[in-house]
């Protein structure tokens, strides 16, 4: 039972570099989302998708891009990494986005920007 | 400013004591969820409350959803060290379908 798989688990980048955080789920969930977690801030929504081909912005979308070409995958792209993007990133999926279904989370990607 | 305000931010108690965590907002939610997160892992769902005034019990955990669907509470009776973790509330506003937003969390530490 893979559930939600995030790769890589750890990454160190230099300021200005770009990279893609991968997220895949095998539960045929329509809803997927990306959060970042910083100390004292809880989880803040970056982008979300209610189905393949549909994405929308969350609370803190600046500096990040997403696409949803398949139901299974929802990659998060950092265009030009900045130290303020140092964080733990979580991907989640759910059968739908009404907030009354369980969100299944990956184990996170710990990202440091130097 | 967080959409969902959790209090307290940190709670340290002895095994056997009771505790209550609060989640408040000025917005109305279609439902609220409570998650627990342990170090190095993603949050795991504990419960979803959907009806104003609803009370749900999960063993020693009791969850309430306010009548106006703007707030919720989590009460743990006779806490055990295994209850240690970060407790997060989350919800989708009635006018923002799809945007599941979280509170900042309450770190609970239960010592033997």
Question: Which key phrases capture this entry?
Answer:
A: 114 residues; mainly beta; B: mainly beta; Immunoglobulin-like; 6-stranded mixed β-sheet
Description:
The complex is a heterodimer of chains A (114) and B (112). The N and C termini of chain A lie far apart (35 Å). In chain A, strands 2, 4, 5, 6, 9, 10 and 11 form a seven-stranded mixed sheet that branches. In chain A, strands 1-3-8-7 form a four-stranded antiparallel sheet, with no helix packed on it. Chain A is 0% helix and 51% strand. Chain A has 114 residues and is mainly beta. In chain A, a hairpin with a 3-residue loop joins strand 4 (31-38) and strand 5 (42-51). Chain A has strands at 4-7, 10-13, 19-25, 31-38, 42-51, 54-57, 64-66, 76-78, 87-94, 104-105, 109-113. The model of chain A has no long low-confidence stretch (mean pLDDT 93). Chain B has 112 residues and is mainly beta. Chain B has one domain: Immunoglobulin-like (Sandwich). Chain B has no helices and eleven strands. In chain B, the strands form two sheets. In chain B, strands 2, 4, 5, 9, 10 and 11 form a six-stranded mixed sheet that branches. A five-stranded antiparallel sheet of chain B has the order 1-3-8-7-6, with no helix packed on it. The relative contact order of chain B is 0.34. The mean pLDDT of chain B is 93. The A-B interface holds A 4, 31, 33, 35, 40-45, 48, 50, 56, 58-59, 90, 92, 94, 97-103, 105-108 and B 2, 6, 9, 29-33, 35, 40-45, 48, 50, 88, 90-92, 97-105.
Question: For the residues shown, what is the average pLDDT of chain B?
Answer: 93
The radius of gyration computed from the alpha-carbon positions of chain B, rounded to a whole number of angstroms, is 13 Å
- Number of helical runs of chain B? 0
Sequence stretches where pLDDT stays below 50 over 5 or more residues of chain A: none
CATH architectural name of chain B: Sandwich
Number of β-strand runs of chain B: 11
How many domains, in number, for the residues of chain B? 1
Low-confidence stretches of chain B: none
Report on the biggest sheet of chain B. 6 strands, mixed
Task: Report the helical percentage of chain B.
Answer: under 10%
Count the helices of chain A. How many?
A: 0
Using the alpha-carbon principal axes, give the shape of chain A: globular
Strand content of chain A: over 45%
Average pLDDT over all residues of chain A: 93
CATH class categorisation of chain B: Mainly Beta
Largest interface: A-B, 29 and 30 residues
Order of helices and strands of chain A: EEEEEEEEEEE
- Alpha-carbon distance between the termini of chain A? 35 Å
The SSE order of chain B reads: EEEEEEEEEEE
């Amino acid at each position: 039972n893979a559930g939600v798989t995030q790769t890589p688990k750890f990454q160190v980048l230099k300021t200005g570099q770009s990279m893609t955080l991968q997220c895949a789920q095998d539960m045929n969930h329509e809803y997927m989302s990306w959060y970042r977690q910083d100390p004292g801030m809880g989880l803040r929504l970056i982008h979300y998708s209610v189905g393949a081909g549909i994405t929308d912005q969350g609370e803190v979308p600046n500096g990040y891009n997403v696409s949803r070409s398949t139901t299974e995958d929802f990659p998060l792209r950092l265009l030009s990494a900045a130290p303020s993007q140092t964080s733990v990133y979580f991907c989640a999926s759910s059968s739908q986005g009404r907030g009354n279904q369980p969100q299944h989370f990956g184990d996170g990607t710990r990202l440091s920007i130097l | 400013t967080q959409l969902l305000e959790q209090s307290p931010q940190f709670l340290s108690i002895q095994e056997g004591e009771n505790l209550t965590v609060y989640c408040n907002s000025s917005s109305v939610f279609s439902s609220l969820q409570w998650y627990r997160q342990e170090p190095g892992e993603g949050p795991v769902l504990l419960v979803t409350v959907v009806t104003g005034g609803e009370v749900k019990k999960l063993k020693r955990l009791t969850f309430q959803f306010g009548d106006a669907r703007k707030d919720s509470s989590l009460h743990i009776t006779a806490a055990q060290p295994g209850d240690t973790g970060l407790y997060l509330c989350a919800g989708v506003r009635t006018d923002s379908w799809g945007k599941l937003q979280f509170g900042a969390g309450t770190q609970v530490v239960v010592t033997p």
